[in-house]
Amino acid sequence: MAVGTMDLTTDVAASARGRTNWLGVAGILALAAAQLFVVVTSPPDRDMGHLQKIMYVHVPAAWNAFLAYFVVAIASLRYLWKGRQTDDLLAASAAEVGALLTGLTLALGMIWGRPTWGVWWTWDPRLTSTAVLFFIFIAYLLLRAFVDDPERRAQWSAVVGLLGALNVPIVYMSVRWWRTLHQIQSSPSTVDPAYAWGLRANAIAVLVMLIFCIRHRYESARLERGADDLVDRAALAAGRGREVTDG
Asked: Domain range for residue 29?
């Protein structure tokens, strides 16, 4: 029974990888092409020089992290409404990717801040609210790792995920609501035209990678959950078989 379960899980896993590999390849190629485009076409900034090119990853990473948390919020609401396991797994998958992108956003911001502001870190409202967002979703992932009961884990995670997603508009608007060292939100309409297309290209490339990573992690989570269910059923069937034999 255990061997059959392992074979089935392996076959399903191979099929799932085949469905998502093409998207991952497309995302990597798009990201490489976008980076090559900005290296070739983007002039050094008047004040920051080539350090400005951090924007092409820093800003798209932040945008796509917000999209990931939007997925977390919608999937969490759907789980609390309908109690479907698939919504819980989708929320968890998006939370993992969102936390990764938020960590990348913070790291790149610190690299940019050291030569620009003279410090690696300052308790600026934008930086602080982004760090709070990051640690909320780290706590979300830790919660999922340490709560064994699937239903309780899903319910608690949905609540934390919704609370974390509510912090996204605070992060976004922090540069307008409070006095801050951080510049206002960057977008193709607020940057010099020489940088706009590079920003758009990288945003699209990171979006493709976001979709790939969430989909890949979601399919992996479904396989893991399915394998656990099969093992539980096999153990239950074996236990019943022993009861019948003993009886």
From this structure: 20-230
